[in-house]
Amino acid sequence: MIEIKEGVEFIEVEGGKELKGTVRISGAKNAALPLMAATLLTDRTVVLNNIPYLLDVFTMKSLLEHIGIEITEEERGKFSFCFTEVNSLEAPYEPVSKMRASILVLGPMVARFRQAKVALPGGCSIGTRPVDFHLKALEKMGAKVKVEHGYIYAEAPNGLKGTVIEFPKKTVTGTENIMMAAVLADGKTVLKNAAREPEVVDLANMLKKMGAQIEGEGTDTVVIEGVKRLKGAEHTIIPDRIEAGTFAVLSALFEGSIIVENYPSHYLKYVHTVMERIGISMVQVGTDSFVAKRSKNLRPVRIETKEYPYFPTDLQAQFMSLLSVVEGKSVIRENIFENRFMHVPELRRLGADIQINGREAVINGVKKLTGAPVKATDLRASAAMVIAGLIAEGTTRIYDIYHLDRGYENIDSKLKALGASVSRGIE
Ligand SMILES: CC(=O)N[C@H]1[C@@H](OP(=O)(O)OP(=O)(O)OC[C@H]2O[C@@H](n3ccc(=O)[nH]c3=O)[C@H](O)[C@@H]2O)O[C@H](CO)[C@@H](O)[C@@H]1O
Ligand SMILES: C=C(OP(=O)(O)O)C(=O)O
């Protein structure tokens, strides 16, 4: 269990220590959350392995328990989910407001129980992040949906019907939510302009083990033939490509002294092409272990975030920390979220030279960063601050660090094992 403490929690990072050793990548947050929500689709037991111990995972656990799922920790990282009786068809404000992915209970609840009341979701404030595509898709499948007093009310008394849904823009949780709704709908659902992220594919793989009929996952057209019921299954969650990318950046900054184990290189192919342009190669040193090899002088680059298989927005902040010490002018364009540069003023406190110009950040590499008090403004921004703090001269105190615990399992112990000086406190 993860403890939430009173007051403003911070992490203090002592920069300039040589990091080396091996770090193991955990299960993916963004796969674990939809897979946990999918357990609402059956009355049989589902067992999930490789669940990361993250705040978001425990928020999803409480939400599912509130709805009526009995969740047992069989061993570390292995949980069984058994839906015995419906306790509530409401996902209340308290857990939902903490986590964007709570919206993922909507599709399964409407599909299986024909009604749901779900608070409008919260999560990282990196943009307005509406859920209109989820709601319009459910309406097209025959649900009546209204949003009132901060809650989404959806009902489909005669069940959901398969149809063709074209998302106006690619949406990861939207694709997952509607895929889960469609597996129990009557007839065929075609999802066009679907998200292709590995986490969407992981969800489809588990749903197929449960008896769902899905084709085309991982492409932008997914076809789902609804079935009457789903059975139980056991599934192992894929490694977290964003945590892996975060440690790849550290491996590069510490001259290849950090070996990253359980590294899902196949999900990071595009990221690797960007790294190659900077002068960094991820080299395989074991079955699933990789290490960064870098040229003496790293080169500035232009990066644009884009849906999978391209450069993930969830690695943008961490790469900005790296580029802030790469000599020359780099540019990062954020195409997915309109407010995902909140780490820029914080990096500037550490001495980075970065200007924002609309959707683009222009980074002029400096020779070194220097420690300062900063704020973790969102999940990946927190990781960017930790990276910057580790390479800065002196001490960096990062406030509002709870964001980090939403997405990085045991980050303190993983970093300490590499020789970093990190400690937590409360002010
Ligand atoms: C739990 C989870 O998996 N979170 C990930 C997921 O978030 P999430 O699924 O919330 O992000 P989306 O893919 O839905 O968002 C993509 C874009 O579509 C817009 N949009 C989305 C839905 C909608 O109904 N209307 C709408 O306008 C969003 O505001 C955003 O601009 O994908 C993001 C993009 O890779 C990642 O940063 C998040 O880490
Ligand atoms: C933005 C993220 O998470 P969420 O969608 O859960 O807010 C993230 O994982 O970087």
Automatic annotation (TrEMBL):
Q: Where is the active site?
A: 124
Q: Which GO terms describe its molecular function?
A: UDP-N-acetylglucosamine 1-carboxyvinyltransferase activity
Residues modified as 2-(S-cysteinyl)pyruvic acid O-phosphothioketal: 124
Q: Which UniProt keywords apply?
A: Cell cycle, Cell division, Cell shape, Cell wall biogenesis/degradation, Cytoplasm, Peptidoglycan synthesis, Pyruvate, Transferase
Query: What is the catalytic activity of this protein?
Result: phosphoenolpyruvate + UDP-N-acetyl-alpha-D-glucosamine = UDP-N-acetyl-3-O-(1-carboxyvinyl)-alpha-D-glucosamine + phosphate
In its UniProt entry, the species of origin is given as Persephonella atlantica
Domain Enolpyruvate transferase span(s) in chain numbering: 13-415
Q: In which pathway does it act?
A: Cell wall biogenesis; peptidoglycan biosynthesis
Q: What name goes with this protein?
A: UDP-N-acetylglucosamine 1-carboxyvinyltransferase
